[in-house]
Amino acid sequence: MIVRTFFIIGSVLAGFALGSSPGSGTFTPGILSGLLMGALALALIRLERLTFSAQVSETLGGFAGFAIGLCLSGMTSFINQQIFLQRPEIVSFVTTATVLGFCYLGTILGIRMGRRYSLAPISHGDHSTSQTQQPKILDTSAIIDGRVADLSRTGFLEGPLLVPQFVLRELQRISDSSDGHKRIRGKRGLDILQALTNMENINVQIVDADFPQVPDVDTKLVELAKLQNAKIVTTDMNLNKIASVQGIQILNTHELSNAIRPAVLPGESLKVFLLREGKEAGQGVAHLDDGTMVVVDQARRWIGKHVEVVVTSVIQTNAGRMIFSSLREGTPRLQASYG
User: Fold this and answer.
1) Distance CA 16, CA 244 (A)
2) Cα–Cα distance for residue pair 63/137, rounded to 1 Å
């Protein structure tokens, strides 16, 4: 930001110096030239932000638009000379402004047209292949969660994995937090990311693109997904909703984990280890290997022991699946074997 500010100030001063003629009694040409150079500097900074993370199609579109704008400005230079034939001191100013205006507009329109018409290869075969190779952007929650590494290792998550610099900064901020729990989560995320980069046949790319005008990370991720035509890998339900509303495809590893869990139906028997009390009086709570919570009625006296339960109902929530159960008939006799 500081460098850009000095660049603009320097351009204005240079334009004023070039436009001011020694011995003239007016500063008008110098002021106009300084403003023109300042506008040119702002246009260059804008173009730099647009093309910093541009795809190949956007870059080619920008060059084509610039060339067309240059040709149009050349065609209009003769008209400008005829219009301002009696005012030669204005001809150079108007001609320069026309060239800058046409070239700037041509470049902007070219970049937007290139963004619309991507040069990605068209698949004439199985459409699913092109979908799996679509870039996937990893957000902070997905990296800390860690299951993305297992999915990549087993081949279920294909295509280049993009990690934006602002996500890396957020991971670093969390790992340096004064909160011990947050610090552990941040360091875990950095370890998972390092493991991903060390995996063979896994294409992890660090993306330098940023959106300084966007304050929060979630909106940055959505903007980057639009720019890269990518999917977002996350476990954050809020980001899931925000991105889905704007037409961005989401791969939620938490939802995937819930979807592939083995089905548990009412009436089935489970053998679980009761860890703690439940919210209601007399309840005991256990967990399956996949993390599913099992609530057992009237099981408080068996906490710390293995019991056999019968599933009474299964509830699916946003946080995951919950299984409600009751002790299997004859449980007191069963517990005698655990002494």
Assistant:
1) 50
2) 28
At CA 166, angle to CA 163 and CA 170, rounded to 5? Answer: 100
pLDDT digits over 8-66, tens only?
676 666 666 655 555 545 556 666 666 776 777 676 666 666 555 455 666 677 778 77
Question: Between helices 217-228 and 237-245, what is the axis angle to 10°?
Answer: 40
CA angle 187, 190, 196 (to 5 degrees): 145
264 neighbors 323 (Cβ within 8 angstroms)? yes
pTM tops 0.85: no
CB of 11 within 8 A of CB of 100? no
Alpha-carbon distance of 121 to 113, in angstroms, equals 17
Q: Could you list the beta-strand ranges (E) of 131-280.
A: 136-138, 161-164, 204-207, 231-234, 250-252, 269-273, 276-277
Eight-state DSSP code of residue 52: T
3-state helix, strand, coil in the chain (%, to 5): 55, 15, 30
Nearest to 160 by CA among 115, 192, 197, 128: 197
324: enclosing H helix or E strand: strand 320-327
**Between the CA atoms of 13, 16, 21 and 22, what dihedral angle is there, to the nearest 10 degrees?**
-40
Instruction: Fill in the DSSP letter of residue 191.
Output: H
Instruction: Calculate the alpha carbon distances from 54 to 58, 108, 206 in Å.
Output: 6, 12, 15
pLDDT tens-place string over residues 142-170: 999 888 888 888 888 877 899 999 999 99
Render pLDDT for 54-89 as a digit per residue (tens, 0 to 9): 556 666 777 787 788 778 877 777 676 667 666 665
